[in-house]
Amino acid sequence: EKIVLATGNQGKVKEFSSLFADYGVDVVAQKELGVSDVPETGTTFVENAIIKARHAAQVTGLPAIADDSGLVVDALRGAPGIYSARYAGDHATDESNIDKLLNALEGQANRKAHFFCTLVFMRHADDPVPLVSQGKWQGEILSSRAGKGGFGYDPVFYIPSHKCTAAELEKTEKNRISHRGSALGILLQSMRSTFA
Ligand code: ITT
After folding, report:
1. 195 has pLDDT over 90
2. What CATH code is carried by the domain that includes residue 135?
3. For residue 196, how far is its CA from the centre of ligand 1 (angstroms)?
4. Could you tell me the CA-to-CA distances from 153 to 5, 104, 185 in Å, in that order?
5. Candidates 153, 173, 174, 178: which one to mutate for ligand 1, based on the most atoms within 8 Å of Cβ?
6. What's the structural domain count of the chain?
7. Does the reported pTM lie above 0.95?
8. Atom 19, ligand 1: residue with shortest CA distance
9. Is 139 annotated as a binding residue?
């Protein structure tokens, strides 16, 4: 059966397409089904993911998977967190968000940060037991950009184990080790054990 992918973010759509192809799951991005973005009024990753999954399921009548994710920076007491997409304001772009982050961390010695991803699967809009999974990816914020791959904050997110930024990783490697890749592995496992 088809599942709607409740995201309007093209970077996420690309990563999920290759991840789901690996797992043999049939997902369609919400835009292709005429679903528009919904206001994210929650105060946690979980709440926002549920809001997005419920909306997409409501509009399409299909089961839905949503991703709410963000960058959590230690020295900024967790900012930008759930506000990562719009850190630099209403018309924020990946570029302006990174500029704002680099400014906020100027002169800061503690560069520790992690990406966080919450995924939600709902069988229908009124599903009382959504499946939830989370993934975390530890790294450090550089003081300038490196790499062209990925999206969002990837060019300044340095992975010590790989000695490069997330934007310099092969796509398949990012999917293997990222917050999104980990969260999806866990979600698919719990979908299998719940519906087997
Ligand atoms: P949807 O709500 O439509 O899915 P969005 O971009 O608004 O799209 P979020 O509210 O979950 O999604 O914000 C996530 C932001 O966190 C995203 O826009 C990036 O700035 C950042 N982010 C999340 N995962 C990332 C990754 O793998 N690499 C770089 N930045 C990431």
Report:
1. no
2. 3.90.950.10
3. 31
4. 22, 14, 22
5. 153
6. 1
7. yes
8. 152
9. no
